[in-house]
Q: What sequence folds into this?
């Protein structure tokens, strides 16, 4: 039975005309605790109606790639696992749509509030856009 299955050749369906993704979330996110701590220590807290955010400019000598890095935090205070995952999905999509507004050498950490769960996606998208434009206007200098 195993030999029969192993000898079959499976065809993988190609995506054809699908556009290539311009934003790779795996490369653009903060991963290490030290990276988050560096942003917290070298920045100050900024607030918007539905989230708190921190940002810092990366220095030229730091090996971090050529794109901005974004970190999302969703603590247990925001609800159960289902709610937190839904908040993360919504935030990731809003960030993906507006990451082009950020300077290349900047790290941003976003702390959403529970209101993100119920707000319209268009409002969330506008808020993320406004946050990223304020980070770009500051030049990531903090």
A:
């Amino acid at each position: 039975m195993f030999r029969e299955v192993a000898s079959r050749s499976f065809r993988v369906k190609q995506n054809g005309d699908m556009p290539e993704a311009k934003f790779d979330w795996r490369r653009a996110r903060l991963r290490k605790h030290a990276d988050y701590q560096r942003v917290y220590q070298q920045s100050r807290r900024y607030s918007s109606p539905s989230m708190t955010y921190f940002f810092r400019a990366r220095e030229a000598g730091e090996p971090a790639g050529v794109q901005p890095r974004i970190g999302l935090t969703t603590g247990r205070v925001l609800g159960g696992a289902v709610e937190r995952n839904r908040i993360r999905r919504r935030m990731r999509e809003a960030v993906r749509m507006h990451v082009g507004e950020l300077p290349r050498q900047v790290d941003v950490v976003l702390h959403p509030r529970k209101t993100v769960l119920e707000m319209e996606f268009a409002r969330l998208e506008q808020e993320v856009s406004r946050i990223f434009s304020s980070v770009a206007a500051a030049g990531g200098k903090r």
